[in-house]
Amino acid sequence: MSTSDYALRRATLADVAVLDVLIDHSVRGLGPGHYTPSEIEAGLRHVFGVDTQLVTDGTYYLIEHHDAAVACGGWSGRRTLFGGDQHKSGADDRLDPSIAPARIRAFFVHPEHARRGLGRRLYEVCADAARAAGFHTLELMATLPGVPLYTALGFEPHERVAVPTPSGPLPCIRMTRSIDGV
Fold this sequence. Notes:
Layout: E1 6-10, H1 16-30, H2 37-46, H3 52-57, E2 60-65, E3 68-76, E4 102-109, H4 118-132, E5 137-143, H5 147-152, E6 156-163, E7 170-178
Parallel strand pairs: 4-5
Antiparallel strand pairs: 1-2, 2-3, 3-4, 5-7, 6-7
C-alpha cells in the first residue's frame, strides 16, 4: 500500500469521537509487550486521549485511508507536554519559541497501518510548522511503543518518567531534538 493512499488533513472538533476510537485501537494494539494490561487501561483512562486545545489551535492532524482514521498526531507551542483533556489541569500558556522547545504531541497509529511511514509523515508536517512558528528544538513524552519511531527521527532520550495515574505509574521517556537535526 502506497502512502499516496493516505490523506492528511487538520483535525476538527467534529473528529474528536473518531480520534478517541483510533487512540484506543492504537494503544490496545501496539501497547502489549511494552505495557501491562493494567498500564494500558490506566493510560487510556487517565493519560492518552485527544487534547482539544491542539485541535482548536489547528496543530493536530489526522491521516485517513479510504475515509477511515488511521493515524493522528500534532505539535504545540504551549506548555503542556503530553496527555489528553482528561490529564490536563490549569492554564496551558504559550511558549516563547526563542527559549522553549515546541511539543510533539499525541501520535497514534492504528495497528493495521503501523510501520508504513505515517508517523514520519505526521512528524514532518509538525516539525515544518513548528519551525515556521520560530521554534528551534522539539520535546516530547514518548510512550514505550513510540520510542523506536522517535529514535529513528533523531530524538534523544533524556529522562525516564513514571507518569502517575490512580492505578499506578505509567512508564514513558522524555525525548528532545533540534528542529533542524543538528
